[in-house]
Amino acid sequence: MQVKVDDVGLTVILLTAAEAGWGKGKVPQLMAQIVDIGGIDKNARARAYRLVRDAIVELPLTIWAQDKLNARRELLDELNRQVTALQAGMSNFPTPEELREDAWRQELDTLYRAAGDAPARTPSRKR
Cβ–Cβ contacts within 10 Å for residue 74, how many? Predict the structure, then answer.
């Protein structure tokens, strides 16, 4: 994930969003100004949406004009929807690589125990 702006730039973008009353239709534009989410996996993309959502939640309500508070709610709802949609596509089950690694670890542990009930190897410390 490539962040496009520094702290000051992010502040300006978030304050502009608050002042202009950006709603749910501005989520792609908001994300495009802050971070490049093209070509990254769903987990990283969901994390980016969560971070932007959390940043908007942290903004004081007083910087949003009274008539634009509804747009703030819509913006947060759309960010939440994006996070939920991305997480819905993720599996809670281990990947084939994780299953292979687990089987390998169990096999090694069995071999070590069969070779004299020695505990499984731990990483050695270099002095």
Answer: 17
What's the pLDDT tens digit per position in 19-70? 898 888 889 999 999 998 888 888 888 899 999 999 999 999 999 889 999 9
Q: How far, CA to CA in Å, does 85 sit from each of 27, 52, 91, 114? A: 14, 16, 13, 48
What's the pLDDT at 56? 93
SS (H, E, C) 32-89: HHHEECCCCCHHHHHHHHHHHHHHHHHCCHHHCCHHHHHHHHHHHHHHHHHHHHHHHC
State the Cα–Cα distance between residues 38 and 55, nearest whole angstrom.
21
Q: Burial, 1: exposed, middle or buried (Cβ in 10 Å; 0-12, 13-18, 19+)?
A: middle
pTM of the model: 0.67
